[in-house]
Design brief:
This protein is mainly alpha-helical. Helix content is 72%, strand content 0%. The N terminus is likely disordered.
């Protein structure tokens, strides 16, 4: 396998990875805390359940986009990328996500959810153990410059746009999923990610009419 480490993976790929990474660490932290101490109030518990369901949906959506769109596009262009291993890791993580989704059905922001929260923490920790090494392979093996040299900027842009528009069954609705990605990024990175979206989405819909949908997650998001 090629051991070179290109430093220019697609910025949207890097940022979605970072948003998911923060989602995992945030989910683990609060699941453990609420399992020990309970929710401070029901609204917080409801918002946390929404945060976790959205995280699971975003991770599933990301895997699906890679399996169905990214990897078929890249397979001949980047033959050294270990597609078989990456797909196997996706399948392993999807099995954990199925377990997590079943547990999340038990979370409603009520007292007495300690066992479910402990199970959530365990599932998220298993995902988090696989995630860093997995995304490192993708980010060091995919180079924008190399792809542009192979297929041209237009084809590369079309591929990235198709990735961004992918909405498989189980993906969260945009009024929740898009704000989840944006607000799990610090301000500077959020601006870059927002710049990859239509201005009407990032500048109008997210802070405007969509806020009623994603607002309950706000305690767990970045300012």
């Amino acid at each position: 396998m090629n051991t070179s480490k290109p430093s220019d993976p697609p910025i949207a790929l890097v940022l979605i990875h970072r948003a998911i990474s923060r989602g995992l660490s945030t989910g683990i932290h609060y699941a453990q805390s609420f399992a020990r101490e309970g929710y401070p109030d029901r609204a917080t518990g409801v918002g946390f359940a929404l945060y976790l369901r959205t995280l699971a949906g975003i991770l599933h959506q990301h895997h699906s986009a890679e399996d169905e769109i990214a990897f078929p596009f890249l397979r001949e262009l980047l033959p050294d990328l270990p597609f078989g291993a990456l797909i196997a890791e996706h399948e392993q993580m999807e099995e954990i996500l199925e377990e997590l989704s079943s547990t999340l059905d038990e979370l409603h922001g009520n007292a007495g959810e300690e066992r479910a929260l402990e199970a959530v923490s365990s599932s998220l920790a298993r995902l988090d153990a696989l995630w860093p090494a997995h995304i490192a392979v993708e980010e060091t093996g995919i180079s924008v410059k190399a792809l542009e040299a192979s297929v041209g900027a237009k084809a590369l842009g079309s591929w990235l746009a198709e990735m961004g528009q992918h909405r498989p069954e189980g993906a969260p609705p945009d009024p929740v999923g898009i704000p989840f990605v944006l607000y799990n990024l610090p301000e500077q990175e959020r601006a870059i990610m927002g710049g990859q979206m239509p201005p009407a989405v990032s500048q109008e819909l997210v802070p405007g009419p969509w806020k009623e949908h994603w607002g309950p997650m706000e305690p767990f998001l970045l300012d």
